[in-house]
Amino acid sequence: xxxxxxxxxxxxxxxxxxMGASVGAAAVSMGHEVTWHSNNRSQASIQRSDQxxxxxxxxxxxxxxxxxxxxxxxxxxxxxxxxxLAISNKFQGIFLEGNAIAPSKVRAIRDDLEQANIxxxxxxxxxxxxxxKSSNTQLYVSGTCxxxxxxxxxxxxxxxxxxxxxxxSASALKMTFAAYTKGxxxxxxxxxxxxxxxxxxxxxxxxxxEDFSQQTAMRITGxxxxxxxxxxxxxxxATTFGEAGLPSGFHMAAAEIYDRLKTYKDGSEAPTLxxxxxxxxxxxx
Length: 285
Description:
Blueprint: E1 10-14, H1 18-28, E2 33-37, H2 43-52, E3 55-57, H3 60-66, E4 69-72, H4 79-88, E5 94-97, H5 103-115, E6 119-126, E7 138-142, H6 146-152, E8 159-162, H7 169-197, H8 201-208, H9 210-222, H10 230-243, H11 249-259, H12 273-283
Parallel strand pairs: 1-2, 1-4, 2-3, 4-5, 5-6, 7-8
Antiparallel strand pairs: 6-7
């Protein structure tokens, strides 16, 4: 357990993406020092880090040696790499595995960390970047040291809830929630693309009604610029379903839908619906 008689906690963040930077900013707002590894990072990462009040550290070993807590908030494919970096750099403290990964993967990471005497906390973030309270972003944590992570964010825009002492619970909640929210967004995208291809989109939208059609168009095009991040998450959800003895094919298909939208990464504005559907249909040819 962290000594809470000392107010400031030294935290290392991996990494300051759109979500990670806001998580770091929440910790900074409570007086904690949040550092990040700034070598070979993009200008966008540097700008987000400056906005969040993070401290740049160029030497990775120093970053881990100075930290009491590591927050791993990165794309799913990088989750294991960050954990292995903590181990190889002999980090000693609490490691938050806060990525969108299958419960089985976080348990495997926990096993590796525990062999290196590192305490693991499972985390699942639901919602968008937590820059202010209006985001309604939730961090669910589980594990024996979950309360230490929750204490970092008390009173910040990142509402944190301790579930239980079981590694895998927070990730399972994240997986099942995103299976619906992002899974159905992919499904609606594919439905409209098929209707467009067959020349019946106008009739489908009439059948849906104006309100639902408009909401759907805004929902799917509004996710286009960040869709590239969802491919790995859908694959992790597919793994979660498969390990529960359920079909995994739907979310593997959702992963392909999001992969077809990677061209919109870092776009300055959302595409039109016509452009969005054309991209989905033409990328598969």
